[in-house]
Q: What sequence folds into this?
């Protein structure tokens, strides 16, 4: 744990002392942005104006080494909500409109965890863990839901399809109309471009209303924005306002949304009773070029297990408990939210195995607090164990990945084509080389051997299609049965 200023010393000491007497259970807010890059916002060096995220960082803690389980949508969200690697719960990739699987009935979500303690729960935004009623948020612990059931590009009206090769465009145009869902019911069967431009505002209005309506009882608000996933849409109020093109305008509107939530908490005297987490589901979709974000010094982006794909810009605020203006450089991950929340609200963890760890010592700025992870496993591309890391070292196993190389991304909302590349077994020192540029395996054979042993244990537990190995600890995803209701629109 590293603080940004000596003036934090007293606050850190007080917070650490307070750990012996747990604070009252807080309200919980998780704001998840889709495809936001590590370097896209002000607190992480971004040039797009983000005054509300700057405020969130100044009033809370910035995590500079915070990872997601997978560099793609559904898998990443499954891990965040269950505290498990996505491999453990049987969810991989990005589920489409033809998917007949979803999050399993037996998994415990953050919402169900909070319900143990009488919390009101709501999800406003992109779900992407199964779109049929059996898999929707109301069946996984949420009292309220409003949003898109999957990504906003799974839509026959995507404006970039006209610029795609004929075969790809025909496949994309084969998508059904994009539905907007409230509860378990479709309330708009054919989302239009005008609707997409209002999504951030609609989600935010619902979120603020939820906070206002539950000011007198504990609540868990999950706000997974559809943006900044392509196609990019912002409301009229933000068109041309950022000075950084359409992507900048969309990021500015996300920042506005964060500000409205923070303002509501302040106005209702709830700020000191509420833990707010802001993060992303994976790195930037670099193929979209000017419509994509940036991973800054990190290598690659979405769709790879390099740091640019799995390291997320993360901020946490809880005034009086999380030290203001602090920076945590210790490794943590979205899978840690569930066990951390369980400790903070006094809820019981599930009987089945989870992979996250309690990170309250990091949150509270405890002296000499370290990452609780001996290892973190990076799975992608159909169950390949592509890398394993600890708090400092990251070992990649030989695998193929998609890359732009030295070529620019696309323009006007159309993607540039990726090329296939291959990395051989390589060891990187993430403290000295977060960009994963220099293989130091030859200099550190002991580190390689240790990480290989840890990886083998992971293969036996979670499998690995690279070796190949069948894992013994994988739980199946939920699968639609013949008698299950289908979402109709």
A:
């Amino acid at each position: 744990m590293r603080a940004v200023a000596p003036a934090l010393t007293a606050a850190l000491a007080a917070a650490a002392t307070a750990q012996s007497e747990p604070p009252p259970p807080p309200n919980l807010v998780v704001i998840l942005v889709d495809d936001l890059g590590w370097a896209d916002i002000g607190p992480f060096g971004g040039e797009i104006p983000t005054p509300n995220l700057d405020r969130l960082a100044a009033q809370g803690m910035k995590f500079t080494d915070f990872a997601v389980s997978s560099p793609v949508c559904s898998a990443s969200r499954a891990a965040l909500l269950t505290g498990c690697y996505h491999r453990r719960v049987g969810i991989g990739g990005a589920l489409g409109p033809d998917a007949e699987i979803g999050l399993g009935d037996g998994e415990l979500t953050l919402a169900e965890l909070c319900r143990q303690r009488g919390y009101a729960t709501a999800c406003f935004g992109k779900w992407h863990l199964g779109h049929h009623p059996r898999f929707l948020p109301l069946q996984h612990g949420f009292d309220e839901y409003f949003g898109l059931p999957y990504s906003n590009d799974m839509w026959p009206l995507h404006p970039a399809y006209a610029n795609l090769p004929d075969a790809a465009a025909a496949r994309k145009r084969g998508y059904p109309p994009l539905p907007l869902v409230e509860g378990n019911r479709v309330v708009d069967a054919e989302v239009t471009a005008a609707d997409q431009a209002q999504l951030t505002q609609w989600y935010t209005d619902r979120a603020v209303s939820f906070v206002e309506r539950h000011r007198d009882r504990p609540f868990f608000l999950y706000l997974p924005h559809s943006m900044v996933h392509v196609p990019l849409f912002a409301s009229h109020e933000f068109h041309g306002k950022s000075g950084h093109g359409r992507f900048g305008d969309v990021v500015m509107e996300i920042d506005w949304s964060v500000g409205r939530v923070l303002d509501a908490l302040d106005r209702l005297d709830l700020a000191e009773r509420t833990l707010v987490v802001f993060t992303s589901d994976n790195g930037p979709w670099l193929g979209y070029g000017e419509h994509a974000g940036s991973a800054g010094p990190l290598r690659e982006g979405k769709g790879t297990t390099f740091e640019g794909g799995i390291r997320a810009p993360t901020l946490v605020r809880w005034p009086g408990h999380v030290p203001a203006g602090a920076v945590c450089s210790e490794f943590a991950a979205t899978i840690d939210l569930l066990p951390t929340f369980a400790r903070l609200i006094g809820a019981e963890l599930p009987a089945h195995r989870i992979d996250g760890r309690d990170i309250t010592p990091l949150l509270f700025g405890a002296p000499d607090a370290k990452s609780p992870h001996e290892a973190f496993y990076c799975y992608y591309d159909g169950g390949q164990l592509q890398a394993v890391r600890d708090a400092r070292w990251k070992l990649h196993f030989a695998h193929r990945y998609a890359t732009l190389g030295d070529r620019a991304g696309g323009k006007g909302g159309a993607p540039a084509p990726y090329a296939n590349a291959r990395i051989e077994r390589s060891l990187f020192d993430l403290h000295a080389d977060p960009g994963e540029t220099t293989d130091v395996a030859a200099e550190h054979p002991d580190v390689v051997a240790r990480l290989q042993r840890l990886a083998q244990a992971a293969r036996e537990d979670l499998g690995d299609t690279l070796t190949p190995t069948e894992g013994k600890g994988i739980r199946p995803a939920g699968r639609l049965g013949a008698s299950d209701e289908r979402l109709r629109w």
